[in-house]
Amino acid sequence: MTSAAETTEPAGDAGADARPEPAEEGGTFADLGLRPELLSVLTGLGYEEPTPIQREAVPPLVEGRDLQGQAATGTGKTAAYALPVLQRLPAGRTERDPAALVLVPTRELAIQVAEAFYRYGRGLGTRVVPVYGGQPIGRQLRALDSGVDVVVATPGRALDHLQRSTLRLGGLTTVVLDEADEMLDMGFAEDIETILDETPDERQTVMFSATMPRRLDALARRYLREPVRLQIARERPASGQEPLVRQTAYVVPRANKPAALVRVLDLEAPTAALVFCRTREEVDSLSETLNARGYRAEALHGGMSQEQRDRVMGRLRAGTADLLVATDVAARGLDVEQLTHVVNYDVPAAAETYVHRIGRVGRAGREGTAITLVEPRGHRMLKTIEHVTGSRVRVEKLPTVADLRARRLELTRAALRESLLEDELDRFRAVVEALTDEFDVVDVALAAVKLAHEATTPSGDDEDIPDVPLRPDRAGTARGEDPRGRREGGRTRSGGPVARVFIGLGRAAGVRPGDLVGAITGEAGLNGRDVGAIEISERFSVVEVPEPAVADVIAALRQATIKGRRPTVKRDQAGGGERPARRGAERRGDGPPRA
Ligand code: AMP
């Protein structure tokens, strides 16, 4: 994808200004030719303009072209294919069988994508059913049976339904393979082919992938017809053009973002900061939160009148506001002289946007700070950004409650010191002297410090924020996540008793599910379908394989190198060989997920 930087900045414009942004290269959702029902939903969601991938993918997809696109989570890729699918659905469609099938690697993503379709398709009454392993199959059967427009499925479960004839693909007009690289890594290639072979030849086929490994080519050649190809720009800025900005990222689950932002702002104590959000809704709710936490935050978004915008900028200029919360559109053409920090409340949808945002600090040789809050899945986008900016974004641990308390005490200490050096303190002498008759002078000082500290320190923001890792890979396991989300209910699809194999290498060594599946299929000659659940922890991994093959697998893996190492490989005794999850109905994947 090669969208240019978003706007040209007015050079050397001192102070703050909020001219309405020039209508420039981007265009609006309406320009993409979307129907009114979709446009009004997008406005309602507070989306101000399409992201670069949406700009480039929507028009050819609406026309019915096939497409192969490189896009990571966070680029807006879901809407880039969902909107055209919805656009192409016949109005008031009542057929029972689906018109579109979206295949995704994990249960978690199936739910997320189905929700996105549901959200965007609300105005059209679109019927969406997610289908994934680990959910009782009965519920899915009923949902499919009562009629559906879009099915979002993991390949294994889709295949189960296909074999039961509860999912019929003869009426499909569009198939989307989302996170295709990931699906191949997880050994779903065969399943995907079986599924695609059941679909009509004249279907539209769309493939999105964060990376473009060679293994995808075969799939693309076989199933895509003259696809439009979209790739992320690879240019780096000319040397010497890199911004002089300290770039830091914090990994924060979505639910903890407001608290995390407050904590980071408390620690960084910016003079003036610009906080970027994706949608108008987010701008409004975040500025409310920040105000409630004692910050003087102003909201700025494209839905505001020119008069309102001018008023906001006036307050910023006069120093009566210290945080500006804005969408990209609203912040265009805005130059705030005293800005010290730029905060990306979300990873921006394009690396160019990131470059553009952080270019607002660190100008003219001044130093600035860019802070990005990344959700655990944001790994790929962060890498792309590092690549495009040619600089490293340091992932740091969120300040802890203890750090924060220490920092606040430090601020109180500094304020007291300043007061001791500068202020006229004599008028308080009588108070201290009256108290020293009764108390020790140090105790009096302590009480005064306590009052001063409490008067300037916000309270009630010390909630626990879990320390989550940035996922080494989207298929990796974030803490607290059910590892079964990664692989179809953790069964070997060929059935039969399973054994667990312990491998003494884990996330710390960069092991990904694909490495293990690759080693087992390559070295032990098993089929990808025979590999069951894979759990990757920090220091080791456990893989389920068919019991009859376990000795061969262990022998073969002991000879293999994984990530350049010879790990310990042995039978994992925990969990045993005959777990209930292998019996009867559950072997077909309709049992509850393992706790
Ligand atoms: P995705 O890359 O599809 O996972 O989307 C990332 C996030 O961006 C989701 O939370 C979407 O709701 C949001 N999003 C997608 N398109 C837009 C847009 N044009 N404007 C604002 N937010 C968007």
Topology at a glance:
Blueprint: H1 36-45, H2 52-63, E1 67-70, H3 77-88, E2 100-103, H4 107-120, E3 128-131, H5 137-145, E4 150-153, H6 155-163, E5 174-177, H7 180-185, H8 189-197, E6 204-209, H9 215-223, E7 228-230, E8 245-251, H10 257-268, E9 273-276, H11 280-292, E10 297-300, H12 306-317, E11 323-326, H13 328-331, E12 341-344, H14 351-358, E13 368-374, H15 379-389, E14 394-396, H16 401-422, H17 429-436, H18 441-456, E15 498-503, H19 513-524, E16 534-536, E17 541-546, H20 550-559, E18 569-571, H21 584-587
Parallel strand pairs: 1-6, 1-7, 2-4, 2-5, 3-4, 5-6, 8-13, 8-14, 9-11, 9-12, 10-11, 12-13
Antiparallel strand pairs: 15-17, 15-18, 16-17
Bound molecules: adenosine monophosphate (AMP).
CATH homology superfamily of the largest domain: P-loop containing nucleotide triphosphate hydrolases
Low-confidence stretches: 1-24, 473-492, 575-595
**By helix and strand content, what is the structural category?**
alpha/beta
Q: List all distinct small molecules, including ions and cofactors, that are bound in this structure.
A: adenosine monophosphate
Report the strand count.
18
As a whole number of angstroms, the C-alpha radius of gyration is: 28 Å
Q: How far apart lie the N and C ends? A: 42 Å
Tally of discrete structural domains: 4
Q: Please summarize the sheet with the most strands.
A: 7 strands, parallel
Assembly classification: single chain
Which CATH C-level class of the largest domain is it?
Alpha Beta
**Order of neighbouring strands in the sheet with most strands:** 3-4-2-5-6-1-7
- Beta-strand content: 5-15%
Helix content: 25-40%
Q: What characteristic shape results from the CA principal axes? A: globular
Average the pLDDT over all residues and give the rounded result.
Answer: 81
CATH architecture of the largest domain, by name, is 3-Layer(aba) Sandwich
DSSP helical segment count: 21
Fill in the CATH topology of the largest domain: Rossmann fold
